[in-house]
Amino acid sequence: MYFHRTILRLAVAFALLTSPAFPQDNARQDDGADNNGKVTQSRPPLSGEDKANPSKAEADTSTGILGLLDADSVTGHVLKTRTQDLAYTATAGTFSLFGQNGERTAKIFYTAYVARNRQPGRPLTFAFNGGPGAASAYLHLGLVGPRILDFGPNGQDGTSPTLMDNPDSWLEFTDLVLIDPVGTGWSRAASDSVASSFYGVGQDAESIAKTIALYVNHNERMASPKYLLGESYGGFRAAKVASALKNDQGILVSGIVMLSPLIDGQLLFGERQYPLGAALQLPSLAAAELERRNAFDPTAVRNAEQFAMTDYLVTLAGPEPSGNEAKAFYARISQLTGIPEAVVGRTRGFLDDTYVKHSKGTEFEVVSPYDASFAVSDPYPESDADRSNDPILDGFTRSYGAAFASYARNELGFRTELTYRLLANDVNERWEWGRRGKNGGMRAQASATGDIRDLLSVIPSFHLLVAQGYSDAITPYGISKYVIDHLPSSLAAGRVDLKLYRGGHMFYTRSSSRRDLTADARTFFSGQSGRAQGE
Q: Which PANTHER family match (predicted)?
């Protein structure tokens, strides 16, 4: 999440103290029941999930901003799925991290959902979004949680969204722990100076790994198969966290699900005037044009992939075409993407972000990089340079933040006066991609490919599922396909899979794509063969 093109060009990092951290030993529970079948308990039986929070009698001694975070809340609920009524316990609370001097450096907010009558071997999945600087409300209320935010009949109205039971919740087949990294959601550092030590690739992974280890140990879940789910930068984060869990905490994960991930910085952040980068982007733009014409066809997208990695790539890598050759080449690109032939010729076929202003020809509309099939009126039609806020990232999906704050207070019983930070620009801007410096250069060198190879090598049961939207232009699926295709077959065969769905970066906002992904995730967690890609 949070890969707006302008934001993509910002550098980002994370530096954290990883000395022992402990959760608050507090729980607040409310009596009664509401009208939605959510049953709260004054004192549920002390299952493993409740032992970390045995009593509210021990008051939180936090001072400053950390003192504004409420005690943990444990509530009981029932989810009506497509096949059953599933009773579960929800815990909304925080884990504390401490520095070497024994002082609390941060509190990390999390929400855990655990089936009441779970069977031995039930998986446990830790989920987070990306950014860097995005809270987990996207995955929480958009995909996996027991409650989901509905954006109205057209799926794009954020003015009056409705919270409802999620019939496709992953809680049916895995317990869930959703984590907000420091600086996002309600996770906070003790001070601004301390916060800077959390904003970096390695330190971020270490802090999340420590939080996961705390949850596992305090709730007696070491024997549970453990999975990670990350979206966008969160996909990159998941690979780094898995490595940190293995190396620092002695915890091995069974698998990772990456949604619309950053995997390789060179392929994503490198100049799109680089022929390979342009070729990996083209199929997503072709898929978006098919969607705009109501003519989407997976076969047509595969044909675009073939053109992108053959004639298109070779022509871009060679001298500038001329004459009839140039005309035919630019016409083919225009037909695939909807960008006028004259514009394509002006850029020599390198599209970069040209599609944002020109995919709709002379209609004065702009499309969203988060879903290049999604167009709105251009507020600056007189300019090729001036851009509006993104119609998806800054449009209806912003509602996830306020909706989660209301949900946590009114249904989960977690009350705080802090603002829930759905997207934290300051975290993104201060991120450090490497120890040697900030900003662009290190970002392009960031890669999770080595982590994936190592995990596949040393954990024979490890599996990876990469899920992407066809028309995502922020993290084009072609990049993930390229990375996966270049993994050693001895490691990846039968263990790494790429699934594609209609939609963009947050393709799960489409109910049909959300259902398809949930079905594929169920298969992934069960270890069975998945559906054929693209079906």
A: RETINOID-INDUCIBLE SERINE CARBOXYPEPTIDASE (PTHR11802:SF3), SERINE PROTEASE FAMILY S10 SERINE CARBOXYPEPTIDASE (PTHR11802)
Place of tokens 């759905």: 422
Largest CA distance in the chain: 81
Q: What is the 3-state secondary structure (H, E, C) of 334-349?
A: HHHHCCCHHHHHHCCC
Percent of the chain with pLDDT over 70: 84
Per-residue pLDDT tens over the stretch 87-133: 999 999 999 999 888 889 999 999 999 999 888 889 999 999 999 99
Distance CA 521, CA 252 (A): 20
- Give the C-alpha separation, 357 to 371, whole Å: 14
Got the DSSP string for 86-137?
EEEEEEEEEEEEE-TTS-EEEEEEEEEEEETTPPTT--EEEEE--TTTB-TH
* Alpha helices (H) along 10-63: 48-51
Identify the structural domains of the chain with CATH numbers, from first to last: 5-267+400-526 (3.40.50.1820), 273-352 (no CATH)
Helix (H, G, I), strand (E, B) or coil at 155: coil
Chain mean position to CA 445: 21
pLDDT tens digits for range 487-496:
999 999 999 9
